Amino acid sequence: MSILAPTTRRFTAVVGPLMFSTLGIILSFFAAVAVDAQPRTPGYVAAVFPPWWDTARIVGAAGMAGDIAGAGGASFVVILRGDPRTLNQRAQTAGALLLLDPALAGACARPASEPATS
């Protein structure tokens, strides 16, 4: 039985740092994507709400944050328009987990027209 102990220690010594490194790479990737996907127009955002919320709760929270301009491909992604000075804060207060540029939301957002500039 003493033969198994060194093998187990060797396995954990290799797998532990490997898993830690892999996790670091994955988190770095998500951080880079999140930074690049920040809304370019402050008054026009794709708000990602918690996926476990029901549709009524998502629509209610989105409506409190701003004007609903579209729906995402996933039921928890809503395109919002509103006052550029307060939209991001209001969406986060309403429960949005992430705010993205609608053009970069990829498969999560259906195409929505850009807001008209006055």
Would you write up a description of this structure?
Strand 2 and strand 3 form a beta hairpin. Helix 2 packs antiparallel against helix 3. It is built from 3 helices and 4 strands. It folds into 2 domains: 36 residues; 65 residues. It has 118 residues and is an alpha+beta fold. The protein is elongated.
In short:
Mean pLDDT is 76; it is low at 107-112. This protein has helices at 4-36, 55-65, 87-94; strands spanning 44-48, 67-71, 77-81, 98-100. Helix 2 (55-65) packs antiparallel against helix 3 (87-94).
Main attributes?
single chain, elongated, alpha+beta, 15% strand
**Strand pairing plus helix content: what structural class?**
alpha+beta
Order of strands across the main sheet: 2-3-1-4
The secondary-structure element order is HEHEEHE
Q: What is the helix fraction of residues, given as a range?
A: 40-55%
Put simply, the count of helices is: 3
Beta fraction: 15-25%
* Average predicted confidence as pLDDT: 76
> What is the radius of gyration computed over CA atoms, rounded to a whole number of angstroms?
21 Å
List unreliable stretches of 5+ residues. Answer: 107-112
Total beta strand runs: 4
N- to C-terminal distance: 78 Å
Shape assignment: elongated
Domain count: the total is 2
State the major sheet: 4 strands, antiparallel
